[in-house]
Amino acid sequence: MLILRGAPALSAFRHGKLLAQLTDKVPAVSGLYAEFAHFAEVSGTLGADEQQVLARLLKYGPSVPVQEPAGRLFLVIPRFGTISPWSSKASDIARNCGLDVLLSLCPKPPNHLLSGEPLEEVVPALRSAAGSTLRGLLLNCATPEVMEEVYPRFVPLADGLPHGLYAHLGQPEETIGWEFLPHDEPQHYADWMARCLEQGARLIGGCCGTTPAHIAALARLLPQGRSAR
User: Fold this and answer.
1) Does a cis peptide bond (omega within 30 degrees of 0) precede residue 27?
2) What residues does 165 pair with on adjacent strands?
3) Alpha-carbon 36 to chain mean position
4) What is the model's pLDDT at position 10?
5) CA–CA separation, 64 vs 41, rounded Å?
6) Dihedral angle at the C-alpha atoms of 111, 81, 163, 41, nearest 10 degrees?
7) Disulfide engineering: 9 pairs with which of 31, 34, 56, 154, CB 3.0-4.6 Å?
8) Beta-bridge partner residues of 38
């Protein structure tokens, strides 16, 4: 995944107003700077032309000088696993500009999108629209139990393309924020994902609730000498 610095996020007016509000509450604050950050999931190393296209697509925001951040960093991101309308539209634009795309869908049993459309209708239409820029198909943001029901029906629809999945683990809990179930521990998740690899999965990872320990357990599934991405 590429992590790219974006343009400054605050105009001079908004910067002044927000800084005044902050110093009123926390007098120790002496400065403020905010900029956009872009996370681009890519299937391989971008060539020089592709890097130039991506840089041009991500050039936007207030016309104010870029600064070199210093001090304490606060990174504000959507909930892990969230695919926002902005992100979806950015992927569409990148595809239309010739950049490769990985498409991930949120499933619902027995063989539907979370929004209700049948996978056997949606996936062929998406493949046709993406054309040769589509480099892989995935399912995400569902529990392993849901994936076990949907994934075997999804695999034939991805025929000819690398395919895979990344599940979410646990559930929201009012007191502690997030609660894991006994079978959500990292090695259990990796053992389950190993069975998915036997079914032909080639793109694996973790969605909401997964931790660095879960990803480390998945990395140990790779053949010796290959690095995780």
Assistant:
1) no
2) 139, 204
3) 16
4) 83
5) 28
6) 150
7) 34
8) 4
C-beta separation of 155 from 198 below 8 A: no
Q: What is the DSSP string of 58-85?
A: T--S---------S------PPTT---H
Beta bridge partners of 140: 166
Q: What is the pTM of this model?
A: 0.57
The tokens for 207 are 């969605």
Buried b (16+ CB within 10 A) or exposed e, 114-134: eeeeebeeebeeebeebeeeb
Lowest mean pLDDT among 11-25, 71-85, 152-166: 71-85
Q: Who has greater pLDDT, 95 or 8?
A: 8
> Which amino acid makes up residue 2?
L
> In the structure encoding, which two tokens stand for residue 205, read together?
């990872």
Average pLDDT for the chain: 82
Distance, CA of 187 to CA of 122 (rounded, Å): 34
CA neighbours closer than 13 Å in the CB half-sphere of residue 179 = 7
DSSP secondary structure letters along 1-41:
-EEEEEEES--HHHHHHHHHHHHHH-TT------EEEEEE-
C-alpha angle 184-186-187 in degrees, rounded to nearest 5: 110
CA angle at 2 for the pair 155 and 124, rounded to the nearest 5°: 25
